[in-house]
Design brief:
With about 260 residues, the chain is mostly beta strands. It contains one helix and 18 strands.
Length: about 260
């Protein structure tokens, strides 16, 4: 038998399932027409097909996958299509399928899978820009998650684990009364001046201050990071209607087992 993961096929004209062998253990694989392409993510021993060619959700079709993978799901509630970019730390493994960029339609979910030892980031914005809002995570030991606006802000992001909003900020910073971005570029993206000012310990610039401690607004804004997560399934949401971390209410739940 062989453990398997399913990935997208480039052939959208036929009912196909691409299987990648992960380990010598048999697993049944099934697919119900008319699914043309299937993407899976692995969490808590189950591989979940995420999308078909039509973008519809599917049901789990592989089970008994070992918990050797971190799954990050992303839901777009921002009201417009968003671009995703991926970066991995030097010397570490790459995400399953090695995505470099992707497009996430409005009101759509997607998921990505990362092997043990991975650490990196996912940039999110209306265009591809290195200064976009970022989801940062690692799977070197227990899972770790944070949302970072240290390079800049493009969209509000929050991330949850085990049903608790853990990191991020759901405030639309561009709509703050009386507060304007000092360095706005196409996107729009507000460049965070903290890098150029070399102020690792803050404080957060005025435009970013409302999210301080919930998302990274300066390099050592470490209250934004949640480590030692008890689950390898992380759910991130883009938009002001996403659940806000309790840190925005001056409270913070601990997700450590």
């Amino acid at each position: 038998m062989a453990l398997a993961a399913i990935s997208k096929s480039s052939d959208l004209s036929a009912t196909t399932v691409t299987v990648t062998i992960l380990k010598e253990t048999p697993v049944p694989v099934t697919s119900d027409p008319p699914i043309s392409t299937v993407t899976v993510a692995i969490s808590n021993g189950t591989a979940f097909p995420i999308t078909s060619a039509s973008g519809a959700w599917s049901t789990p079709i592989i089970t008994n996958i070992l918990d050797e993978y971190l799954t990050i799901s992303i839901t777009n509630l921002y009201g417009t299509p968003l671009s995703l970019s991926f970066g991995s730390n030097a010397g570490g493994p790459l995400p399953v399928g090695n995505p470099s960029s992707d497009m996430l339609l409005n009101a759509s979910p997607t998921q990505y899978t990362f092997p043990t030892g991975w650490a990196g980031r996912i940039g999110v914005g209306t265009n591809l820009n290195s200064n976009s809002s970022k989801i940062e995570s690692s799977f070197v030991g227990p899972p770790d998650i944070d949302v970072s606006y240290v390079d800049g802000y493009s969209v509000p992001i929050t991330c949850s684990s085990e049903g608790i909003a853990a990191s991020g900020c759901n405030i639309e910073l561009f709509q703050q009364p009386g507060i304007k971005c000092e360095d706005q570029v196409d996107g729009p993206i507000c460049i965070n001046p903290i890098r150029a000012q070399n102020l690792s310990d803050g404080p957060a610039p005025e435009f970013f201050a409302a999210c301080a401690g919930a998302a990274y607004t300066y390099p050592n804004d470490n209250d934004a990071n949640v480590s030692n997560l008890g689950s390898n399934l992380i759910s991130c949401c883009i938009g002001t209607s996403c659940e806000a971390p309790s840190r925005q209410s001056l409270e913070r739940d601990v997700l450590i087992h």
